[in-house]
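quick one, 275 residues, struct below
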Amino acid sequence: MDTMAAASPLPEIRSVTVKSVLSRSGISGIDYSLNPYIGCLFGCRYCYADFVARYRGRTEPWGTFVDIKSNAPEMLRRELGRRAPGRVSLSLVTDPYQGVEREARITRRCLEALAEAPAFAVSILTRSTLVARDADLFGRMPDIEVGMSVPTGDDAVRRITEPRAPAIEARLAALRRLKAAGVRTYAFVGPLLPMDPRDLARRLLGAVDWVLLDRLNYSWKIRDLLRRPGWSRVLAPDWLAEVRGAFAEELAPAGIACHYVGREAPSAGAEGGRR
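---
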């Protein structure tokens, strides 16, 4: 069960139908993006996907609304029959395992369709512990990787920047459970928020096969928050290098690769996966 640090505001939840669900991706190693929901109730303060609200004409603050694509599984089955095989990402502008998925089960039903189309590889990225629910389904998929967003190892930071997201240790426990079940797992440590990088790297041992780092690209969104004592370190030009060095030293002896978004992100099909 997701461990929440703060109660969510009363959300606006709607059910909608869509004409398609697979979108071509411009990200290296990802052919298609699949977003089972519009919006995300986690409402992380630094989220880049808040442009979706403007694009969809929503006036509610980001993080307070979600549209459930009720016919997404049916549309996906149709599209898989006529699309070229490739890697499908769940998800780039929503969290596929946010709280509404517990009952709506749109993500699981989409994954069931993908499990019946083995020519399509799957890459999941979430910050929800609910992902562990589908370990049985992942075991039936020949090419799948499951990633967990862990931008900090400090719950004090998480409570301010991701107030409605699960606790960090709960996320790591979900990764351990999936890895123990034989699922290929990774941690997306980004954006790089205030943390003790060596501590977080050590906590990832035994939980992941690889790690992907990403700098804080939208610092202006939380600049006021970063004025807290000690937090401004993440704005320094060498913060990424410091974190990379610490992660490499802690994880390399265990054979865990550490990449960063940009020049060193592994290509599609390469050992270690991709974002």
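The domain at 12-260 is CATH 3.80.30.30 (pyruvate-formate lyase- activating enzyme).
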